[in-house]
Amino acid sequence: MARTRNDEPDEDEDEDWEEEDYDPQDPETYPSGLYDDDGPATVPCPYCKAEIIEDAEQCPKCGEYISKEDTSPAMSWWVWILAVLLLLTFTFMAIGRE
């Protein structure tokens, strides 16, 4: 939940509110005007700084994955080098047998 704290509540609103009436687990006990909760929680994208939903796996604006766990699996450069070396080894072994 996106919440923004208002610096100063309106003076005409709920001046008789007391702190012992406040329960952090119950939004009904929040003093009026303390939080504006009008939509899903958002955070800035670490790449393009666009506001995205907090639980998003991928930024809808730039397309980057937010965490490494969410990225699609890709072969590392060392796997490609190993594959090329094995291919060359088998090629030279096959040429040497002829």
- Helices and strands, in order, run as EEEEH
Task: Give the overall shape.
Answer: rod-shaped
Percentage of residues in helical conformation: 10-25%
Number of helices: 1
Q: Descriptors for this entry?
A:
98 residues, alpha+beta, two-stranded antiparallel ribbon, 4 strands
Describe the protein.
By secondary structure, this protein is α+β, with helices and mostly antiparallel strands. The protein has a domain at 1-39. It has one helix spanning 77-97; strands spanning 4-5, 35-36, 42-44, 51-53. A two-stranded antiparallel ribbon has the order 1-2. Strand 3 (42-44) and strand 4 form a beta hairpin. The N and C termini lie far apart (71 Å). The model has no long low-confidence stretch (mean pLDDT 76).
Q: Gist?
A:
The chain is built from one helix and four strands.
Strand and helix map with partners:
Blueprint: E1 4-5, E2 35-36, E3 42-44, E4 51-53, H1 77-97
